[in-house]
Amino acid sequence: MNYNVNEKGYYGDFGGAYIPEMLYPNVEELRQNYLRISAEPSFKKEYDELLKNYVGRPTPLYFAKRLSEKYNTKIYLKREDLCHTGAHKVNNTIGQILMARRLGKHRIIAETGAGQHGVATATVCALMGMECIVYMGALDIKRQAPNVARMKMLGAEVRPAQSGSKTLKDATNEAIRDWINNPVDTHYIIGSVVGPHPYPDMVARFQSVISEETQWQLQELEGRNYPDYVIACVGGGSNAAGLYYHYLNDERVKIIAVEAAGKGINSGESAATSALGKEGIIHGSKTLLMQTADGQITEPYSISAGLDYPGVGPMHAHLFRTQRAEFISIPDQEAMDWGLTLSQMEGIIPAIETAHAFAVLDVRRFKPEEILVFNCSGRGDKDLDTYIDYFKL
Amino acid sequence: MNYNVNEKGYYGDFGGAYIPEMLYPNVEELRQNYLRISAEPSFKKEYDELLKNYVGRPTPLYFAKRLSEKYNTKIYLKREDLCHTGAHKVNNTIGQILMARRLGKHRIIAETGAGQHGVATATVCALMGMECIVYMGALDIKRQAPNVARMKMLGAEVRPAQSGSKTLKDATNEAIRDWINNPVDTHYIIGSVVGPHPYPDMVARFQSVISEETQWQLQELEGRNYPDYVIACVGGGSNAAGLYYHYLNDERVKIIAVEAAGKGINSGESAATSALGKEGIIHGSKTLLMQTADGQITEPYSISAGLDYPGVGPMHAHLFRTQRAEFISIPDQEAMDWGLTLSQMEGIIPAIETAHAFAVLDVRRFKPEEILVFNCSGRGDKDLDTYIDYFKL
Amino acid sequence: MNRIDQKFKEENTILSIYFSAGHPNLEDTVPILKQLQAAGVDMVEIGLPFSDPLADGPTIQESSTQALRNGMTTEKLFTQLKGIREHIHIPLVLMGYYNPMMQFGLENFCQRCQEIGIDGLIIPDLPVEVYQEESQDLFNRYGLYNMFLITPQTSEERIRYIDKVSKGFIYMVSSASVTGAQSAFGDVQTEYFQRIQDMHLNTPTVVGFGISNAETYQAATSHSRGAIIGSAFIKFLENEGVERIPEFIKSIRS
Amino acid sequence: MNRIDQKFKEENTILSIYFSAGHPNLEDTVPILKQLQAAGVDMVEIGLPFSDPLADGPTIQESSTQALRNGMTTEKLFTQLKGIREHIHIPLVLMGYYNPMMQFGLENFCQRCQEIGIDGLIIPDLPVEVYQEESQDLFNRYGLYNMFLITPQTSEERIRYIDKVSKGFIYMVSSASVTGAQSAFGDVQTEYFQRIQDMHLNTPTVVGFGISNAETYQAATSHSRGAIIGSAFIKFLENEGVERIPEFIKSIRS
Ligand SMILES: Cc1ncc(COP(=O)(O)O)c(C=O)c1O
Ligand SMILES: Cc1ncc(COP(=O)(O)O)c(C=O)c1O
Questions:
Q1: Using a 6 Å cutoff on CB, does residue A232 contact ligand 1?
Q2: Ligand 2 touching residue B330 (CB < 6 A)
Q3: Is D touching B (3+ C-beta pairs, cut-off 8 A)?
Q4: Residues B290, B276: Cα–Cα separation, whole Å
Q5: Average pLDDT for runs of 10 along chain A of length 393
Q6: Cβ contacts of A156 within 8 Å, gap of 6 or more
Q7: Nearest chain A residue to B83, by CA
Q8: Do the chains contact at C153 and A22, CB–CB below 8 Å?
Q9: What CA–CA distance (Å, rounded) separates A236 from A242?
Q10: How many angstroms separate the CA of residue A57 from the nearest CA in chain B?
């Protein structure tokens, strides 16, 4: 089976572009040009150079010695937390800003939940001297003050989304509305492998640098370019898509996707889309999403703002349905404990999103010779307040 | 002239080891072994691997296009802000923890002001599974809550220094006292090129990876391995020492050191040691320091906690006295403004310490063909509260 | 003949009103419909509320959210509309997002529409290509027209294509802007209206978004076959109540 | 003959007291000295306060900080001590950190010491090697002894070297610990005292750090020529005042 997107923008049953006509010209322009532009030598050169000289790529593939000893298996961390701005998100925003420039756009909009994607977008806009407006739920603005400040430092305007529950989902709606209202000069930088085709594929390709590097790094370190497992947390799914990308069709590599169970799958406060979601349409894409019987999208819950999204990207819906990937959901408490464990065993304070992935070590057994690559998608500095509160530090 | 340390531990008139007899065995053990150990192939291998796979080295040498255009000269940023934990400090703590292990120590102490060195120390201790105690002024503990939380997340004990003005100077005194009280099993990881010989030289060598990389990176980018200027902020002076190191005796390269003028050199609230200091002894080293006529060490002031130190390392005292380096002091306000400028022009929010260095662009003229390398010593996330307050973000 | 086609045959200028079902009060749907018909409105779009109405402006969003809070559901709406054709003879269009329809079961949804006597659907997030592939046959089978939008950015080629696929009318979005009232149209919009008029499409066009008063209604209908009022009507409803609907309609057609 | 040598010739067991000049009150220096001599103390170390006394424990640190707050300076101390030899005949040692002396001007400092009749110096952050290179000649010229510390970690080789360089006495730090009172010595310390005693050094040794009462004084002086009391005396001063010094001394020698 082929797990990449097909020509029509679908991963199996999922994907597509369920968008209002007002967005058609923009999305269509992107669809018709994204592959061509990103294949241009001048684009690749600029993208690669920025990833190297600005973002700090390649990020290390770090062998976690103490963790490996404790769990008696070979644990590698792909260190996206070392990217400029502190998470994998910037791989995508660098790509999209270059895309936007080549499409002649000079105004950028984005949505953000925890603020990581907002910061990554504000960053590349500053770098290119482009106007930047970030939509963020009014509630999230209050909860994530430091990232709001970072965006403002970077010269971005942060616009509160006042509708609905005033969180990520609503910020995304507002960003889409802005794009509808500004169809000519504006590019919308979506922050994950969600949204209408070609976004999921485009974002996955920009993030695929993660597995591309992993391949040669593993070759250097282990003498073979693939691991036994790739393991990542899934909010929308972009860091996971990046780590899986070059292994999607390599059946030697097992894929584990980790979702946020929040207070427990059956608690009513969860973000475990694969367990709780049904097929539907969210933000322009047919995928799995959490919704009422009536098709209203439900508010998800997770202690980590970046996993607090009611859907997953269509690639992940497909990986789930075809059982190519195993989906595991991890409650708040285990994730938080892993935040502490990783800090104290490896000196790496992970984002709470990232911490979810590691909890797999407690629920699955691995063999001593098996090679596991975890995506260390982001650093935990943005989550310090949450950690402080939770652990009474 | 040779600007490196001499065999007796002096840089010209400065340096030495003015230590109580209680510290003699420890400092002497270090002095006798640091060069031998750090030259061992197994040490070099472990150090280099950790720098690469854990810290994320080499850090990029980033050509700041927009800034270069604005100032009509060639501006490169050495991106130490991308190091794991967010500043150059970790280059040193990685080296020292490996040194400590080879000396058979299993308890680590450190002092910290802003918390960056404390975090970098707590990080390597977690990595090695070693006990870690960080001394921090009781006042700084209150001012720098997030870094305190990071250290605790990493499993370190943060001990408040209650003496004196309860800031960095006093934390250093407390750390020294701890070392006196624990002469056998403990290694003291000093965070800058200060303290008794061999610390200034050892720390400078560990930080010298900065200029080592700069050499080959410039060769790749500009076809010659040296710039016209190396420019860095100086608190104790470790990031500056790292950037200058391989250019110290290369007179083609001009050296600029930037100190914190605080509220102005003559305001009584300043940390501009070169302008205000006199020769004396601080923390075991003969150097320039700010003191009363009576030889009492004065409390410095800077808005940036990392430059808020009343002395400079002996290497810098020597560079100043011999006029090998030009010393410039930059007041709080200009530094803060540069924090914003760098954020909005290059998408890089610098530490306030780092921001001081860039203000040189406003006070010196450079030619279009001249190559400037600035040390981007750390990221500004730790300073967000200060930025928020200052700019009312 | 579909009531929509019938209406465009009978009337030269169509006034159509949009409201969110279940707003301001859960049981207002039928009373509003009766008032609208009595006031001489030619067609009604009944909004099926959705949690995430990303193509709508603030007024419609809020009415949608309020309707959901009031307890509106797809099933509830169908129950309210059961037997509506005993009183209401003007064309009725359901306007809603694709997801709630999918969850209801698309075929089931169409069947219920047919039973009630719904004439057509407007589904903003169902683009024409997907429609053709996924739902055209089904809608046809249940006699439901599906209306498409065009905007100032829609290319001529695409307009022609949409015209070919369309039945009933083409919903001509007045400006590149989510719905929301404005008090007058500018030159850009007038030129756009003129441009479309000059294309002499087969399907009648109805202007929507930004029609709020007699002036904008006038401007829109001088270049098209009709106009749809949404936000302005919803605001009126909120402030003045269902009883005073005739006054609103009179103010538009005055 | 230097008063220190004289004293060690006269007395078998030396009791020496340390206090920070200018603490508890700025003008206490001379009254304290008089009380100490009257109480039969053999030698006094006068602490020159320093802002950053990194070899001292909390009690001495605080007394030092308080003394600075009270206005104590090097010049002030010399002024207070001017003419002191009219009243005080026991050896007087100045104990202070190197930086204030450097700032005063090292030669100037020595000269003033000589004028006053100071017998020696203890400078914790002036290691023996640096002393030999930078200040030995100068100190000799002004008749000032410089006393060095040894600790339980000091190697035998180094102790021998220090013994060779030393005049007056060797300050034997009782344990690897900054000054601060403790109520009794343990086995480790006793072994250390014994080890040093068995080395039969040329220079007499005096134990300091952790002497607080008759018991620790006893223990220390059974293996050495004397003991220095610092923190315990400073605490007593703070709590009981200058007038009651004789009681403190009596409690030690009882
Ligand atoms: C560090 C980190 N990891 C993971 C995520 C989840 O996003 P995605 O699933 O697109 O990787 C986020 C989102 O903010 C994040 O900041
Ligand atoms: C980012 C950064 N730059 C500079 C400094 C100053 O230290 P040094 O002069 O040793 O580089 C610090 C100290 O905390 C720092 O955190």
A1: no
A2: no
A3: yes
A4: 6
A5: 94 97 96 98 98 98 98 98 98 98 97 95 98 94 88 98 84 94 94 98 98 98 98 98 98 98 96 97 97 95 92 98 98 98 98 98 98 98 92 91
A6: A118, A121, A122, A125, A126, A132, A133, A134
A7: A82
A8: yes
A9: 12
A10: 8
**In contact, C78 and C22? CB cutoff 8 Å:** no
- C-beta of A377 in contact with ligand 1 (< 6 A): yes
Q: Pick from A56, B20, B204: which is nearest to D57 by CA?
A: B20
Chain C residues whose beta carbon lies within 8 Å of the beta carbon of residue A180: 55, 176-178
| Residue D20 burial by Cβ neighbours in a 10 Å radius (0-12, 13-18, 19+) | buried
Closest-CA residue, ligand 1 atom 10, reads A238
B287: enclosing H helix or E strand: strand B285-289
B335 Cα: distance to centroid of ligand 2 (angstroms): 14
Contact present, C146 and C203 (Cβ < 8 Å): no
Instruction: Find out whether A191 and A121 touch, Cβ atoms under 8 Å.
Output: yes
Contact: D62, B163; criterion CB under 8 Å: yes
The shares of helix, strand and coil residues in chain B, as percent rounded to the nearest 5, are: 45, 20, 35
Exposed/middle/buried for residue B223 (C-beta within 10 Å: 0-12, 13-18, 19+):
exposed
State how far the alpha carbon of B43 is from the alpha carbons of B39, B46, D48, in Å: 7, 5, 45
Which chains have at least 3 CB atom pairs separated by less than 8 Å from chain A?
Answer: B, C
Planar angle of CA A305, A308, A313, nearest 5 degrees: 120
> Going by C-beta distance under 8 Å and a sequence separation of 6 or more, which residues neighbour residue D120?
D2, D4, D91, D93, D94, D144, D145, D146, D147, D167, D168
Query: Ligand 2 in contact with B85 (CB < 6 A)?
Result: no
- Alpha helix segments (H runs only) across chain B: 24-39, 41-50, 65-71, 89-102, 116-128, 138-143, 145-153, 168-181, 199-207, 209-222, 238-244, 273-276, 314-321, 332-346, 352-358, 360-363, 384-391
- β-bridge pairing B278-282 and B285-289: antiparallel
Pairing state of beta strands A285-289 and A278-282? antiparallel
Answer yes or no: B111 catalytic. yes
> Taking CA atoms, what residue in B is nearest to A65?
B127
Ligand 2 atom with the shortest distance to the CA of B242: 11
Domain ranges (residues) in chain C: 3-252
Task: Check if A391 contacts B (Cβ < 8 Å).
Answer: yes
Both tokens assigned to B282: 């601080």
Q: How would residue B223 be classed by pLDDT, with cut points 50, 70 and 90?
A: very high
Whether B89 sits among the annotated catalytic residues: the reply is yes
Q: Which CATH architecture has domain C3-252?
A: Alpha-Beta Barrel (3.20)
- Nearest chain C residue to A19, by CA: C125
- Angle at alpha carbon of residue B101, lines to B99 and B106, rounded to 5°: 130
Whether the CB of A7 is below 8 Å from some CB of chain C: the reply is: no
CB A160 within 8 A of CB A138: yes
Pairs from A221-224 (Cβ < 8 Å, separation ≥ 24): A221/A61, A221/A63, A221/A76, A222/A74, A222/A371
Cβ neighbours of C128 (radius 10 Å)? 19
Report ipTM for this prediction.
0.95
- Digit-coded pLDDT (tens) for B63-107: 999 999 999 999 999 999 999 999 999 999 999 999 999 999 999
Pairing of strands B325-331, A278-282: unpaired
> What is the C-alpha to C-alpha distance for residues B360 and A65, in angstroms, rounded to an integer?
43
**Residue C40 zone, left/alpha/beta (φ > 0; ψ -120 to 50; rest):** left
